[in-house]
Known about the structure:
The complex is a heterodimer.
Chain A: H1 3-6, E1 24-27, E2 33-35, E3 55-56, H2 59-70, H3 90-93, H4 101-118, H5 124-127, H6 140-155, H7 161-178, H8 181-193, H9 196-199, E4 200-201, E5 203-207, E6 215-217, H10 219-231, H11 237-245, H12 251-263, H13 267-278, H14 299-319, E7 332-335, H15 337-343, E8 360-363, H16 377-380, H17 391-402, H18 417-420, H19 430-437, H20 441-455, E9 469-470, E10 473-474, E11 479-481, E12 484-486, H21 489-498, H22 500-515, H23 524-536, H24 541-549, E13 556-557, E14 567-570
Antiparallel strand pairs in A: 1-14, 2-5, 3-4, 5-6, 6-13, 7-8, 9-10, 11-12
Helix pairs in contact in A: 4-8, 6-7, 6-8, 7-8, 10-11, 10-13, 12-24, 13-14, 17-20, 19-20, 22-23
Chain B: E1 22-33, H1 51-61, H2 66-77, H3 82-91, E2 94-96, E3 99-101, H4 150-155, H5 170-176, E4 183-191, E5 198-210, E6 224-227, E7 235-242, E8 245-248, E9 252-257, E10 265-277, E11 283-292, H6 293-301, H7 304-312, H8 315-325, E12 328-330, E13 337-350, E14 352-355
Parallel strand pairs in B: 6-14
Antiparallel strand pairs in B: 1-4, 1-13, 2-3, 4-5, 5-7, 7-8, 8-10, 9-10, 10-11, 11-13, 12-13
Helix pairs in contact in B: 1-2, 2-3, 6-8
Amino acid sequence: MMYLKNLNMKPKLSRRRYLLGGVAAAVLAGGAYVILSGSGSVSAGIYSPGEPVARRLSAQQYETIITDVFGAEIQLGGRFEPDVRIDGLLAIGASHVSVTPSGMEQYDVMANAIASQVVSPARRDLLVPCKPTAANAPDDDCARNFLSKVGRLLFRRPLTQAELQAYVDASHAATQMLGNFDKGLSMSLAAMLKSPQFLFRQAVVEADPDNEGSYRLDAYSKASQLSFFLWNAAPDPELLAAAESGALHTRKGLKQQVQRMIDSPRLEASVRAFFSDMFEFDLFETLTKDGTIYPYFSSQVAQDAREQTLRTVVDLLLDQRADYRSIFTTRTTFMTQALASVYAVPLGHVGYNGSADTWQPFEFPENDPRAGILSQVSFVALHSPPGRGSATLRGKALREIMLCQKVPPPPADVQFDLIEDTSNPQYKSARERLSAHNDNPGCAGCHKIMDPIGFSLENFDGSGAYRTTENGAPIDASGMLDGVPFNDALGLGKAMVENRATAACLVDRVTAYGMGRAPASGERPWLMQLRQDFAKDKYVLPDLMLRIATSDEFYRAAPPKPAAATQTVMITANDDTRLEVQ
Amino acid sequence: MPSKALLTIAMLAASASVSALETRTYVIHKFVHAPNSQDGDCGPEGPNEDADKLYARYLSEMGKSPAEVKRLITGWISGGPEGRIVQDLMVNRGRIEGQPVNGYTHPAAVKDPQLRTVISEYGYGFNLDGQVSPDDFIDPETGEEGVDHNMFRAVGCNQGFRGVPGNEGTYWAYNLQLTGSEPAWLISISGENLNEDGPVSITFNRSYEHLKLMANGDPVPNMTYRVDPDPRSQNNFRAHIIDGTLRFDEPVDFQIQWNPLVMAELHLSRAQLRMTLKPNGSLEAFLGGFQPWMSAYWGVAEGGYAKEEMVVGDVPGLYYTLKNLADADPDPSTGQNQSISATYHFLGVPAFHVPATSSGRALSRAAK
């Protein structure tokens, strides 16, 4: 992509920017507010939007921005702090996290590494649009030219005059100190890359001229909200231009941009990011299986299992525009050799030059006990302990992840001995062990909302492999979901299709993912309307995303609270960058 | 994995004479010579010499003084420059018209060292020639008499070949390391009900793919392998399961491409099989027949000095034991037997077989 390479336009600097570069600045610009924290608490009203939030860039978003701006060859050279899941989504957790000293060190390492690669001899001429008058002396015009363009892409808005001047001044000083223009320039670029304006997606709120007393995201924040929602990336130059011209605030201009982005292949990145988040696929990073029980469950299997479900979802929901609920009953998926071994299915080798490691479309036949993503390894193995399956964990995961329901945590004094004793000759099957465990009334209350769901997946062991017996005892895979009984995993999939909470949960999750916060109570009417529209649209995901992205509600915000929006940002254009957010 | 669930695609058609309602397919993950080494089976002097004693003796026979022999062998063992001297002398210990030649490529140019051979009563295999003679073995598992297995007799007193099925000698341990980098062998068995006695058809093929192994070194079960259509690796035989053991209906000629580092191709004439299909879905079998002894020799000799000093012992000596104990297929003009009786032991795990041009859509095991 390399936006920077393709950019020749001169940035117009906004008159309403307020983050300051330089040594230190207290920021609170009149008429516009930078929000670095907030909650969904909203007062009652006909329509009361929640407070907008600032979100830390995810690792994927960071990497995508760097790729978009500087090219895919740039090596990040660092690692990211773990994200936090709140209300079912890391995307919401991203608005509740800060940066630890260790995390800041990593940002510092990456910023310096990226900046030095950008001005390296191999890339400089491609990425820096000018040459200084002397290689060993400051050239403020050239520095300004580069920093204004790159700053606009990294900050997702034009730099203020003060910001730009601060970065130019820093580059000037560093060049004098180091005796090298490019090195000086890279110091300013590195400072940008470790600034909160880059690392956090900030929401700027302004009064809505079309709705007196209401507030909305300003054009650039709107562009960011839209772009990260639909592409999981920063706004591209066209979207930034639409924000700059004001077109994004018009209905026609917004629709035009949304449709362009929905039609783009880059929509897949966002769909993948969303479902990775919703399905809690970050758990794969710490998934382990007992090698003595499941020796075939390699890291490759885990990696492929995650990818299999994402491919299944993308194929169904984007390529085929199928009913969202069909992900619970579909027999079509994709397969690799490593996965085929776990599923015990034959797989033809149709890769280039007979490669055995390529993904291949696969369809489970009508009489196969597997259908839908709940019977895929990514669900049954991910929600199992290392050495056994777990009807309870699977039932809990289904309720919380797929139905957006909350299951209380187990009591502190719960005894797991009986459940974990898989070699107990008296209780051979999980159903028998859980039945005995649930003799304790304190346990039975919660188990009854989880176990009947999970029992239907008992034909899949802790690795996801199919089985008909456990410890020699035949498996009874009958189960129940919200009063609907079924005989096996296929029945569970069908029950999920019929369950009203299934589609409603997706609407809630997609909306929350886009806004970075749980919907506020005042936004319920909008959510209810989205749910109805989703049904009207035959549960087609891109149509839902289009409706959300073109909704005014998606960009509305509660009135700003100046006291809560105060921040102090310290930026220095050298290695000693510090970040303080109050 | 339930054995009943081993139904799979039937693109590898069974013999027309067998009603194939069930087909089980496997990948072989261990195919090794089947020795039956026991204490005392090489006589009172024990197995043949290891390389240090062997080379010391050869150096002495070459006229080196005891002190010189000691110096060279000590230096050779400790990795000193003497190693190169010893290596050159041992590699070129053959003589043609008085001139040194490579003893591994010209084994007949080395004097027969008269290696000791196995004198045991018991050895794995089959009565391949229908005769029961005093030189034959008795199979330790089946009690079958008249077992022809002169490969064991020929190589079984060299340390690198000593062992028992399941705990083979160093030579085969070395060869087993190659299984992850050579095309796997496949077996398909079809019959009306493989849990019961009755007629079956059995195929042996080679795959395009290498054996896929887990981190613990065991084969990955249920992997898919493409069947190599190369005519040199096609074997389709009739067999019967009788009392739970699968055997060929009649002796067969078996051929399959192998690994040039072991044997470029394995040919077994008048081959017999006994195979057990285990409840856990795996299989274990013995396959015996007469194989060209020269190809067996070259499988050892291709490694030359390196294999000799580290694994197999006297390589030209093995040439003579194989030649002398060859027991079938006499050359019409010289009378020298061209083949030697041998038995191999192998294991298999469930795997899927697909034609080389498979579309990739087929039934899972769980789909009844």
